[in-house]
Amino acid sequence: MSNTNTKTISPFSRRKFLKSSGGVALFIGASGLLPNLLSCSDSKGVQRQLTKHGVTAWVRITEDGQITIYNPAAEMGQGSMTALPLIFAEEMDADWSRVNVEFSPQESEIYGSEGWQPGSKLMFTVGSRTTKSYYPVMRKAGAQARYVLLHSAAGYWKVPFDELTTDQSEVIHEKSGQKIGYGDLVSHLSMPETLPDFTESGLKNPKDFKLIGNEIPRTEIPEKVDGSALFAIDLRLPNMVYGVLERGSMHGAKPTLTNESEILAMEGVLKVVPFDYAIGVVANTLEAALSAKDALNIEWGDALPKGFNSQEIYSTYAQRANALKKGDTVNELGDVELAMHNASKTYEADFKNDYVYHAQMEPLNAVVQVAQDGQSAEVWVGSQQGADTKLGIPDLLGIPHEAVKVNLQYLGGGFGRRSMNDFVLECGSLAKAMAPQPVKLIWTREDDVTYGAFRPLTLQRLRVSTDAQGNLTGFWHCVVGDGGNLVASGARNDHYTIPNQWVEWREASHGVRLKHWRSVGHGPNKFAIEAMLDEVAYDHSIDPIDFRRKLMINAPRALATLEKVAKISDWNSPSAEGRAKGVAFVEHGSLGTGVCEISVNYNTGQITVHRFWIALDAGVVVQPNNVKAQMEGGIIMGISSALKEQITLVDGKVQQRNYDDYQLLRMQEVPDSIETVIIPSAEHPEGVGETATPMVAGAIANAFLKLTGKRLRHMPFTPERVLEVLNS
């Protein structure tokens, strides 16, 4: 590995390291990835130095050669607890069998990656950005740690730095035949005057990777299997009490409690805490808190959703799409109106999708302890983090940011819901009332369904023009719904060569709580786009793969996924009788094309997805098996949302309460096989967690069109809706 093409940063004022019986820590300054290795005479001095300089560690090496690497991202089953430390270990040349992984402190100035705006640093596990954004961070930090070890060995052996190499946690001097393990170097560590700020050319060539791209078992799986893994809901602290809230079923309605004295008289009840939209109860046990919650007598006021009926709103949305006044422009290319005027043929269709609930496995929960004087607090939570790594608790309590410690735990599912901190702030309010006792807040499943924060309901009107040969000349896409980017993302067609495009969003708000749901707007938008493409191809008797092949002429990486999935799915061979295949392409960071094979029960309206094939280009793939697992999970979640999942509101009130009336895909309904082929690439890694889910609905609708000649345009494709289409 060459260290040329690197730039140096200013010299250190200290050249000694922090040494202890536990080993050495390479400290990273708040200004960047600069290891400040501090010399301190005792533990109190260490603490003073750390406080003064505001630093913390990326890696810790002990004298027995054990290495601890800190993971800055949430771990909710997507594998970040392995992927990010693996990137660090690759550049450090660490022996992976001797690596342990822990969550880093929640301090974005130190552990953050580049955010959505230049110069910002975030710890935010959302948007399929974790590996993408931390890839350069972890590579440079690992390379700097390796550099320090090389420098230390060169000084210890009195040999030229350039004669040294590393491998498997050892520094090697080939000329003299000497080797020394990283652990053995702990007592000989020294700091260079300057440290390279490695550029891409100074890091490993991907062809030399030993860990990245190989099948490395995930670090957290064993403890999840044997039950020793701790999620926030598992935590039990001394003197901990329990909190619950009753929020009602109309979002934003104000409560008036009429039997507070009776509630306070119940066994185990400690306090009643009112909120603008809920009534909170704190009790000695969860059972006592839930019993008190059931006994609450609340008069609910009106709120913005009152009178709103979700299944009746589509006609109003259609009128909004008809209005001459345009909405907010999302994308504009060429002249769509002129293309429509000159078209040989035009097509128009409305696509609809209902509200969808996140349905994460672990109920929302948090533990917060506020000091007796109210001037500090500690939080234990499974969170996708956020713009504020302290999750809003400092502002809630009116205390400094540094006075709050957040202990990140494993998440039992997130999908965007745990990037919202409402449940943490609720727990903080209860803990403030109970200080200094720690409070655990738990949302029941009914709480989470009725007061959920849903993927928005939308209507999308698409108008498409073609020439006489069936070539697309214009594509107009109008999204009507609430939430801005929640409904507008994924509506662009950057990988299709369509000369004239217009995408707009027209707002329609009803006071319903909304939040990012896996793939955000891509799910509904890619469904509408991909289904519309097949409707045009079907009308012109053009094969859907051939149709997309021509559209992707200027997008070779996207085209490669199309060609690969056509091959692995044996697209050109006929399906078995009663079955058909459908295709859909999605870009959500990574590029993926999927093909599904379905059948339809004409008596019940039940659609069955038998097989799914995916070709994926995700750039450099850190963990191939984990990427395949992500794609499989995304496909299953996509099938569930496309065929079953549905939140409805009547007179502003959520009608579903639990999994008996909010249907999810069952084990016996998953495809017989899901096959993912990863296309090799040396490009920068892209996210994979949200690529599979939005391709599903379009692929199913397109297979349905091929099989029946009928069009599915309203998600979810419930049996009732399928029968209605079949009988139309």
Q: How would you explain this protein's 3D organization?
A:
Residues 226-305 form the Aldehyde oxidase/xanthine dehydrogenase a/b hammerhead domain. It comes from Maribacter cobaltidurans. This is Molybdopterin cofactor-binding domain-containing protein. The chain is built from 19 helices and 34 strands. It has 728 residues and is an alpha+beta fold. The chain has three domains: 7-225, Aldehyde oxidase/xanthine dehydrogenase, molybdopterin binding domain (Aldehyde Oxidoreductase, domain 4), CATH 3.30.365.10; 232-303 and 364-442, Aldehyde Oxidoreductase, domain 4 (2-Layer Sandwich); 310-356 and 454-726, Aldehyde Oxidoreductase, domain 4 (2-Layer Sandwich). Strand 20 (365-370) and strand 21 (377-381) form a beta hairpin. The longest helix has 28 residues, at 130-157. The protein starts with 6 loop residues before the first strand and ends with a helix. The model is unreliable at 1-25 and 27-56 (pLDDT under 50).
